[in-house]
Amino acid sequence: MRWGLIGASTIAAEHMVRAFRAEPGGTIGWVMSADAARARAFAADHDIPASGSDLGALLSDPSVDAVYISSTNEKHLPQALAAVAAGKHVLCEKPLAMTVGDARAMVGAAARAGRVFATNHHLRAAGTHRAIRAAVAAGRIGRVLSVRVHHAVYLPPHLQGWRLNDPGAGGGVIPDITVHDADIVRFHLGEDPAEVVAASCVSGLGQGVEDSVMSVWTMPSGAMVFAHESFTHRFAGHGIEIHGTEGSIFGRGVMSQRPVGEVEIVTAAGRERLACDDADLYARTVAAFAGAVAGQGAPLATGADGIASLAVAMAVRQAAATGARVRPDIAAALVPA
Ligand code: NDP
Fold first, then answer.
1. Are residues 21 and 108 in the same domain?
2. 52 and 131 co-located in one domain
């Protein structure tokens, strides 16, 4: 698989370049940026043969099989539509787009063109979360009563830019982190919220966008979810707890981009540490994507998953802005556009 990178981004530099090359036969042919000089510098830093600011040039290169879109969020829609029109498969960063309607348009276009479209929700690829999901699915904690997601972290200084001050680029902790939490709850429970309530605030870093949010979701099964996301918490740690009628699962330090953290299950039989593999999250995501392109299996997080996570996040934002209970109609959002 030969990749074209759309976006000379931090996530591409820190994680994805390595992940694309970890796949047997995985190569990177292009990097594109709005700024040709930045694209050139990125290409030199990462040994990528072609670079530039012309998306059309990247997309017209027949040797590029798939693109990875990691530009700021408002650019994902036009770039994804252009890539699909050029016949490329697409791995797109979260949030897929600025609105659920735009995300549906991207995913629908890829489906009509017969291209693989995936969302880079990395937590699904974590050995910790896969162990949690397997334990829940095996009924080890009985019927799920509640989930607590604590994902209040500190935005590193080198990322303190558009996320904090540019709503037009998709800034704010809700599109940035709540989408991941919506996806991982979906992964573990296999359902989406029926209703959400929320409150958000600016707690030290945000300039014109929220940097902290707490929300409560009621699920169709009757389970409840509490989610806390922030950019301003230096020492809070992060994790997920899933509590059921027969046991509780504690995932500590598992809301990470790296294969770290630990998972413990507590039942009437006592405490047990669950075995978790330590595979690289992004390499596993890329491997599943390559498999899907080869006709073997599906991406770990599909386009539909990316639509659903965005719909939940936007419902949280609406609930926080209005104080109202909001019902995200995920089923309607998932009707092919
Ligand atoms: P960056 O701010 O590093 O990059 C986003 C864009 O900003 C780049 O594509 C680039 O535009 C521009 N840019 C980068 N550096 C500079 C600079 N020095 N000066 C001016 N512009 C610059 O963002 P991230 O890598 O953190 O995020 C990119 C996307 O990836 C977002 O959609 C985000 O939500 C997602 N993401 C996902 C993660 C995950 O684990 N799934 C983790 C982190 C981010 P251009 O390409 O035009 O040069």
1. yes
2. no
Identify which of 10, 68, 98, 256 to mutate to test ligand 1's pocket (most ligand atoms within 8 A of the CB): 10
Task: For residues 134 and 269, state if they share a domain.
Answer: yes
Of 5, 6, 11, 106, the one to substitute when testing ligand 1's pocket (max ligand atoms within 8 A of C-beta) is 11
Ligand 1, atom 4: closest residue by C-alpha: 9
What residue's CA is closest to ligand 1, atom 12? 9
User: Among 6, 9, 46, 254, which residue has the most ligand 1 atoms within 8 Å of its CB, making it the best to mutate?
Assistant: 9
The average pLDDT across 74-98 equals: 98
pLDDT in tens, 110-160: 999 999 999 999 999 999 999 999 999 999 999 999 999 999 999 999 999
**What is the Å distance from ligand 1's center to 71 Cα?**
5
- Residue range of the domain that includes 174: 123-280+310-333
Q: Are residues 219 and 327 in the same domain?
A: yes
What tokens appear for 137 in the block? 């699915």
Q: What does the alpha-carbon distance between residue 182 and residue 304 come to, in Å, rounded to a whole number?
A: 13
Position 144 in a domain? yes
Q: Tell me, what's the pLDDT at 336?
A: 86
Q: How far apart are the first and last CA of the chain?
A: 28
Is residue 2 in contact with ligand 1, taking CB distance under 6 Å? Answer: no
Cβ of 73 closer than 6 Å to ligand 1, yes or no, is: yes
Question: Is residue 69 pLDDT above 90, yes or no?
Answer: yes
Which domain CATH number covers 12? 3.40.50.720
Phi, psi of 45 (to 5 degrees): -60, -35
Residue 304 located in a structural domain: no
| Residue 303 resides in a domain | no
Contact yes or no for 331/212 (Cβ under 8 A): no
Q: What's the pLDDT tens digit per position in 186-221?
A: 999 999 999 999 999 999 999 999 999 999 999 999
Q: Which residue, among 87, 74, 128, has the nearest Cα to 250 in the 3D structure?
A: 128
Identify whether residues 205 and 293 lie together within a single domain. no
Same domain, 327 and 243: yes
Strand ranges inside 17-168, DSSP E:
27-32, 50-52, 66-69, 89-92, 117-119, 144-152
